[in-house]
Amino acid sequence: MAQLVEVIGVTHNPMYCRRIIDPNETNPGVLRVRDGFAEMRQTLAEARPDVLISIGNDHLNQLFMDNMPAFMVGKAPVAAGSFTWEYANGVPPYQASVDVPLAKGIITGGYDNGVDFSYSDEFRFDHSFTIPLAYIRPEADLSVVPIFCNVMCPPIPPAKRFFQVGQALRKIIAEYPSDARVGVLCSGHLSVELGGPRGMGSTDPEFDDWGTEIVGTGDVDRALRELTYDRFWQAGNYTAGFLTFVLLMGLVDGRPASHWEVVHSDTNSAPFFTWDLHQGGGK
Amino acid sequence: MSLYYVNKVVKLIVHTEDTVARRRWLERPEEVLEGMDLTPEERRALLLPDIAALYSMGAHPALLPPFMAVKDKEGPATLMARYLNIVSGLGHPSIAT
Predict the structure, then answer these.
(1) How close does chain A come to B90, measured CA to CA in Å?
(2) Where are the beta strands (DSSP E) in A91-165?
(3) A231 at B interface, C-beta within 8 A
């Protein structure tokens, strides 16, 4: 059976893209994000994954309200991105083959585990996928299976559903007939606004500390009770991007993270989460 | 109120490789709006564009700065500052379609 060896959660804020490669950058938070990505790269390498499940969300770059999936598996043979208009912001490109049998296994396994995943045979990655992949697995030598989550277009699934999907994914991987070592790279957001009146930068640093701690300590009860759409909306109009990390809580069965931190800087705060399951799990 | 079609028009113009659609919007916008289920106020707000009105009716805010940029050729920093000035004080209307 396949083995879940490493789970990583990071920011996909494109405001960091140019700055973490700028030799003149001096902001301590930005420099910590740069180093954090380098550490995530090392952590993933040490777990020796054979395949990566990549979890993120499209930003209305391709998916739209004419047919919006709550959770969608990409099963085209190749995954590539990003988009022309995102490259202008320094977003890195990425291309990888897709592990189509595993993608199909997740879809069919979902039917047995209470999740009807949508799927796509024609999709592109946007920055929520290319940023973690390019910074944490720049070799682009592993097949991936992307899972797109709706966190932008209400009604979006509640925290409970993200957690359930994570739990289902955990079972699907455990029952998947393969000896593959599976790594998970997930991206999301802390407090943030997209096109909202509060502008750029963290819109609720208290939420950033509080939410990161809930996920990092594995406080499932609070996550499901208190990470509501209204709380996200209060923190910033796109803060529901945090929900992908709740999916990770289900994926790791509520374990505390092996490492978690929130980095504050002069732009949006950035979280780092790792669950080193190949070393016996979280703390 | 037909908020979905407001977003659909905006999405046709931004976040797309379809330069023909964008040129059509700039040259013959009424054609783009044909067949769209829009109220007179929504049509007016899209054509102007009246960013404050679009924001207030719940057009998806992630799409509005790039929509504003289609007709305004100022740099991104200037445009974003002007955008924020427009939506400042408008709160957070529901964006549910």
Answers:
(1) 7
(2) 94-97, 118-120, 143-149
(3) no
